[in-house]
């Protein structure tokens, strides 16, 4: 995902660096594979928070989760989601995971319903037929993501951020193109959320090994969480 206005990927990478005779390794996925992704994971179980506070929604529709809602979710779990430098619980290098309920909804659907959802017309912009729950495109959210210095972010929805964007930007542009922060999508967080609720523990050890593919632009998702 590039910074759309300039057509620039992370590390000043352009289309010709990815495909064609001048393709190179400056923005290849194998760089992450060489050392892996390891750190402290933090799970925000927004789905459970929303349903227990009488805030139902359909994860297969556009539903932006605001910073204020995430902060309330964190408080419900006993987490101050502000960075440590501002008096909160988030440490530099933490790995953020958000359970939005998409996988839960996916499992509840028939194969025909899943196919229908996957085949909704896809276009860039607010007319996109692909519509999903995710974090909101707002200045508060951008500031929070920046100030926390997350090593990576992940969620159970197809796009992590609310889709489509009704702003003139996508959070993918900030996370990927500007900051070089990996985004994990469509992670099955159901069992992890259950274990965290049972233990009332929302921080854990996380390890992930992206695909070791030279000139690769993405990887299959894989992650192990150890409480």
Would you kindly provide a written description of the structure presented here, covering whatever features stand out?
- The chain is α/β, with parallel strands linked by helices.
- Helix content is about 30%, strand content about 15%.
- It is built from nine helices and eight strands.
- The mean pLDDT is about 95.
Give a short synopsis of this structure.
This protein has 227 residues and is α/β, with parallel strands linked by helices. The chain contains 9 helices and 8 strands.
Features:
single chain; 227 residues; alpha/beta; six-stranded mixed β-sheet; two-stranded parallel ribbon; 9 helices; 8 strands; 31% helix; 15% strand
Rg from Cα: 18 Å
How many distinct beta strands?
Answer: 8
* Structural category: alpha/beta
- The termini sit apart by 32 Å
Give the proportion of residues in helices: 25-40%
Instruction: Specify the overall morphology.
Output: globular
What is the mean pLDDT?
Answer: 95
Strand ordering within the main sheet: 6-5-3-1-7-8
- Percentage of β-strand residues: 15-25%
- Give the H and E element order: HHEHEHEHHEHEHEHEE
Q: What is the tally of helical segments?
A: 9
Q: Could you outline the blueprint of secondary structure elements for this entry?
A:
Blueprint: H1 15-18, H2 30-35, E1 37-45, H3 46-52, E2 63-65, H4 67-77, E3 95-99, H5 102-108, H6 111-118, E4 133-135, H7 139-148, E5 152-155, H8 171-178, E6 183-184, H9 190-199, E7 203-208, E8 224-226
